[in-house]
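Annex B, item 7. Sequence and structure tokens for protein A, then protein B.
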Amino acid sequence: MSNGARRRVVMDAAVTQRALWRVAHEIVEKNRGTDGLALVGVRSRGEYLAERLRRKIGDIEGVEVPLGIIDITLYRDDLDHRAQQPAVKGTDIAFDVDGARIVLVDDVLFTGRTVRAAMDAIVDFGRPQKIELVAFVDRGHRELPIRPDYVGKNIPTTYQERVSVHLVECDGIDEVVVETPSEADTASGSAGS
């Protein structure tokens, strides 16, 4: 984004915390507890959101659900279109995926391609009973038939806008920002997400 982009904060730290508490409660309620439940965060911001949800579920239920982290880099369907070599940061799933009820956590749901890649990666570890999806932000514009089970916030956007989830763990602040490109950015095609 160039300096001409318009930036608006749509979620601050307080709204972020309330959304995470609500989603944690919804996960516990829909799954009737935590038996067989495991959280898997999509690197990188999804892993931090999954850890926060894990702590909140622990506060609600008094148990610690298993947590995994999935790196989808090598599962992306656009890998051969990227100019640079992919940076693989690794996957860490130290629990048995077979028969588990996996709650996949991602920061922004846009086209659905990241979620498809994450499901492919999870299935390489075993066959879960089911996979549910937490999209902290659902911005629409799906290219694949994927719908989240839990949503922190729906934020309708144009295709050219960019949604950024900033988290204390990696950005020093909790907020969700929508950036609208300037006309010059739109003309040059630099406003994707």
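Protein B:
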Amino acid sequence: MAQNRSQEVRNPVGLYAGPSEALEAVIADFQYWTGRLTETSAQMSYAVIGANWIVFGSVNAILGSIWSKLSLLAVLLGLATGVVGTWLLCEAHRRRGVYGDSDPARWATEFHKFANKRSPWPFTAFIEWTASWTRNLKAAFALLGGVFLVIGAILKS
């Protein structure tokens, strides 16, 4: 039987006082690293755009290289993914907030129903899926843009 937080066994020797504190640390780190991924993928995208100008030197040279065009396309798709993903997640969270606020008794019932179970609650499967795909695509497009840039730079010389 699962213990609630007030009945949690505390281990004064370990890094965490109990399982809830350890879980909170995992969730906090997940939120931190998700934010860092968003920041670094955007920064890398901007760096790749700038590096294309440095490597190829002009609009004509950029447009004359398939690798440069692929590099820019990849990072632009990554940046667009961030915008679309943020838009979808904002709206999904707004709807979820309205849902919870419109019937507090139902919200409380669902809290108890899904407590200690593998469930996306209080979010939805759509929110989790969208967040996961947005994270993955932003990172993949930024990295792909960098790879295309490096290939283009090597073939240019």
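Comment on protein B: The chain has a mean pLDDT of 90.
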